[in-house]
Specification:
- The complex is a heterodimer of chains A (280) and B (313).
- By secondary structure, chain A is mainly α.
- Chain A has a domain of 163 residues: MetI-like fold, CATH 1.10.3720.
- The N and C termini of chain A lie far apart (49 Å).
- By secondary structure, chain B is an all-alpha fold.
- Helix content of chain B is 72%, strand content 1%.
- In chain B, strands 1-2 form a two-stranded antiparallel ribbon.
- In chain B, strand 1 and strand 2 form a beta hairpin.
- In chain B, helix 4 runs parallel beside helix 7 and helix 4 runs antiparallel to helix 9.
- The longest helix of chain B is centred in the first third of the chain and has 32 residues.
- Classes of the chains: A mainly alpha (280), B mainly alpha (313).
- The interface between A and B is large, with 97 and 92 residues.
């Protein structure tokens, strides 16, 4: 350190100020986005927005009830598909997966989590839509399910790993078979953490549009049929945003606020679950 | 019935255990099968474009659905350029923000800021796209006008500013990966042992010297890995980019011109593709994107794993 102390001290303060500036700038920019979504979106929200279906362009009123219900249908299908496989694989990895095959599964789960969401859409399109010859809620749910899968798998594994081995040993020492120890002691102990992961994964795929473009496809009408195209919140948002109509733009902001709200609630939930886990 | 393992000869596995483990193995095999299937289906879907164009697909600059001539180069160029430039903007800012969160921020500020960042990392990309379209683009158009008038002789700013175009895509990508780079870098910096800092401070180094000469080098491979994970996200980002990049398969040096990325080209044209060859060419774009992000992610994960000693974030 040949520089005089005053210079070094000044550099340190300067760089510290720069980090404050960066953090402030990113936080400010992102707050701006949030504020904008809330302000614009709030103007669109009313009772009709949640309870009515879309009306033709130019007609006042209407809502996006079909898309809200559709999102729940598609995300529900995704969960039906991804939760058993994901949680099952996670348990396998944590309890039986300390071998070569486990490493392969772990690696592939990581690969899957890095695959861009639009490719999940292509996957579901080639596998289901092209074979069936029509778009469907089912194929959309499948695409989102594949997206969820690696998140659920790895979270389950990590949460089970955090359960101390003494719990397993205590169960086995009582003469219980391994599966009973797992089902009655180990998994319940990790259930809150697993639930956290599931909530996060659900919130993440609920906002996905790209995999649904050519699977769930969208539908201007109310539908609960999983073999028919279905409207979803993010996809409707996208269609409305790129449309030339002011009323649709307003509804797009409303949809954005609803989606952001969902993510916000999920994040809060995760914080609360996580915080409680730490205190016990 | 009491059962003592090993008392009456070698232990037999409990039948419930066999069934249970078998079931779990089946689930894990399903996961493996799905990834393999994903790759196979992408390959199958790429027919007949794959054999028709061969290597020419990667080097072709024309994308002409009418004459059925498909080249992926403009989309590949757009994908790589938009993502790299976005990373060049978001990387340093994210890193500095992470240093602030991990080293300087008081607890009462660090908690809400961290929550904000995590929240923003999970906001759907279509919401970013909407915000970009109605808030960012009008601002950007004014900035572009000024740049064009003042520095119009530089090729980067030589074309007509539209607002929508490559620059808008870069900006929204940078904003989108900012929370992500910050969060990853913060975690890696936090994982640097206290003793490392204390040793340096005890030698009389200033706080910044400690960070610059000890903390960041210690966390370097993790930070680079995090940046590459962010790059992987930017490469595959679809909706926000589709809404802002202008969607034209052109390679242009000028930042204001409309462009395309692999993901946005698929998103934009897939439902309009009429012929079999057209659809398969779009799926082949997906295959190219898959390959790029696959390599990227493996490299990034290796780096992150190395720094965290096998422990995941």
């Amino acid at each position: 350190m040949e520089k005089p102390y005053a210079v070094r001290k000044a550099t340190s303060h300067l760089m510290a100020a720069l980090t404050v500036l960066s953090a402030g700038m990113s936080a400010g920019l992102l707050l701006l986005l949030l504020v904008y979504v809330v302000r614009q979106g709030a103007a669109a929200l009313n009772w009709d927005f949640f309870t009515k279906n879309p009306v033709p362009v130019g007609e006042p009123g209407g809502g996006i009830a079909n898309a809200i219900v559709g999102t729940f249908v598609v995300v529900g299908l995704a969960a039906l598909f991804a939760l058993p496989i994901g949680i099952g694989s996670g348990i396998y990895l944590s309890e039986f997966g300390r071998n070569r095959f486990g490493d392969v599964v772990r690696f592939l789960a990581d690969v899957l989590s890095g695959v861009p969401s639009i490719i999940m859409g292509i996957f579901a399109y080639v596998l289901i839509v092209a074979r069936q010859g029509h778009f469907s809620a089912l194929s959309g749910g499948f695409a989102l399910g594949v997206m969820m899968l690696p998140v659920v798998t790895r979270t389950t594994e990590e949460m089970l790993r955090m359960v101390p081995d003494s719990v397993r040993e205590a169960g086995l020492a009582l003469g219980l078979p391994r599966w009973r120890v797992l089902v009655h002691a180990v998994i319940p102990a990790a259930s809150r953490g697993i639930l956290t992961g599931v909530v996060l994964a659900l919130a993440r795929v609920a906002g996905e549009t790209a995999p649904l473009l050519f699977t769930a496809f969208g539908n201007p009408y109310f539908s609960l049929d999983i073999n028919q195209p279905i409207a979803t919140l993010p996809h409707t948002l996208f269609n409305y945003a790129i449309s030339p109509y002011d009323d649709w733009h307003l509804k797009a902001w409303g949809a954005a606020l609803v989606l952001t709200g969902l993510v916000f609630i999920a994040s809060l939930l995760v914080r609360l679950l996580g915080a409680r886990e730490m205190s016990t | 019935m009491t059962w003592i393992p090993g008392l009456f000869g070698p232990t037999k596995k409990n039948r419930g255990d066999v069934v249970f483990e078998g079931l779990l193995l089946l689930m894990a095999l399903t996961l493996v099968g799905l990834v393999v299937l994903l790759f196979i289906e992408l390959l199958i879907g790429s027919f007949p474009a794959l054999p028709t164009f061969g290597f020419r697909f990667l080097t072709g600059r024309t994308w002409d659905p009418i004459r059925e001539e498909f080249g992926a180069l403009p989309a590949m160029y757009g994908t790589v350029v938009s993502s790299l430039l976005a990373l060049a903007i978001a990387g340093p800012i994210g890193l500095l923000s992470a240093v602030f969160l991990a080293e300087f921020a008081p607890h009462w500020l660090e908690q809400p800021l961290s929550f904000l960042i995590e929240l923003l990392a999970s906001i759907p990309s279509v919401v970013y796209g909407l915000w970009g379209l109605f808030v960012l683009v009008p601002v950007l158009r004014r900035v572009e006008m000024v740049l064009h008038q003042r520095l119009g002789t530089i090729p980067l700013f030589a074309c007509t500013p539209w607002g929508i175009g490559m620059l808008a895509a870069i900006a929204i990508l940078a904003i989108m990966i900012l929370p992500y780079t910050t969060a990853v870098a913060r975690d890696v910096i936090r994982a640097v042992p206290r003793e490392q800092r204390e040793g340096m401070l005890a030698l009389g180094a200033t706080r910044w010297e400690t960070i610059w000469h000890v903390v960041i080098p210690y966390a370097r491979s993790g930070i680079i890995g995090g940046l590459m994970l962010a790059l992987g996200r930017a490469l595959g980002e679809t909706m926000a980019v589709t809404m802002l990049i202008g969607n034209r398969p052109d390679i242009s040096l000028c930042l204001f011109n409309p462009a395309y990325t692999l993901a946005s080209q698929i998103a934009n044209e897939f439902t309009e593709a009429t012929s079999e060859l057209y659809v398969s060419a779009l799926i082949e774009l997906g295959l190219v994107l898959f390959a790029i992000t696959f390599l990227m992610n493996i490299f990034a994960r290796l780096l992150v794993l190395r720094v965290s000693g096998g422990r995941r974030r």
